[in-house]
């Protein structure tokens, strides 16, 4: 492993989270994986919650970068769908980390984590604002519309990850659900 001990601890915690969920992440297991003493993590993190918070902060920043990359395409409609796809892909590849970011009330509420979380929302919101300006999404309250889109995507992800998605209920596939959402929102702009 390369990088600072702190970055190695965060990366190892993320790997353990992916392979065994939150129960698999202990400071001792992370230290063992990195090859440092079992006390070494305490030099960087006050406790397990702080380490998990560092994983969440890192992943929120990664999502922000993914949304910024999606926003770099010239077509706003493609950009918002790519941003949604990046979030869905993240949830599918890292379900335990996704739950950590969006469903764990036990995460520390330090300023860096809050800034990283809000930064990822803002990066998505900039795409929504661009879509509104170009007539791809309905005009109006950008933050509210971003929240609605985020909530719909998160709901569909939660149903799939929890094994509760059902085609009989119209929610059998996240991608189809998100396509329908954007189609409906687009049709609202077309009726003007």
Give me the CATH fold name of the largest domain. Answer: Tetracycline Repressor, domain 2
Number of self-contained structural domains:
2
Strand content: under 5%
Biggest sheet details: none
Helix content: over 70%
- In the CATH classification, which architecture of the largest domain applies? Orthogonal Bundle
**What class do helices, strands and sheet pairing give?**
mainly alpha
Shape: elongated
Uncertain segments are none
Separation of termini? 56 Å
Q: Could you give the count of β-strands?
A: 0
CATH level 4 superfamily of the largest domain = Tetracycline Repressor, domain 2
Radius of gyration: 19 Å
Q: Look at the structure and give the mean pLDDT.
A: 92
Overview of the structural elements:
With 192 residues, the chain is mainly alpha-helical. The protein has two domains: 1-45, Homeodomain-like (Arc Repressor Mutant, subunit A); 53-190, Tetracycline Repressor, domain 2 (Orthogonal Bundle), CATH 1.10.357.10. It is built from eight helices and no strands. It has helices spanning 5-20, 27-34, 48-71, 76-93, 95-103, 111-133, 142-161, 174-190. Helix 6 (111-133) crosses helix 7 (142-161). The longest helix is centred in the first third of the chain and has 24 residues, at 48-71. The model has no long low-confidence stretch (mean pLDDT 92).
């Amino acid at each position: 492993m390369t990088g600072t001990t702190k970055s190695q601890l965060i990366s190892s915690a993320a790997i353990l989270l992916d392979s065994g969920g939150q129960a698999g992440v202990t400071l001792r297991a992370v230290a063992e994986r990195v090859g440092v003493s079992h006390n070494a993590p305490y030099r960087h993190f006050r406790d397990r919650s702080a380490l998990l918070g560092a994983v969440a902060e890192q992943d929120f920043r990664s999502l922000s970068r993914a949304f910024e990359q999606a926003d770099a395409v010239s077509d706003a409609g493609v950009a918002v769908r790519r941003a949604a796809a990046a979030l869905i892909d993240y949830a599918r590849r890292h379900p335990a980390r996704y739950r950590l970011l969006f469903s764990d009330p036990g995460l520390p509420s330090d300023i860096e984590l809050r800034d990283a979380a809000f930064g990822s929302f803002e990066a998505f919101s900039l795409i929504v604002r661009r879509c509104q300006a170009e007539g791809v999404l309905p005009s109006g309250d950008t933050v509210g519309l971003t929240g609605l889109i985020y909530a719909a995507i998160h709901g569909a992800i939660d149903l799939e990850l929890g094994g509760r998605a059902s085609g009989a209920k119209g929610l059998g596939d996240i991608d189809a659900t998100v396509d329908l959402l954007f189609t409906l929102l687009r049709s609202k702009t077309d009726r003007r």
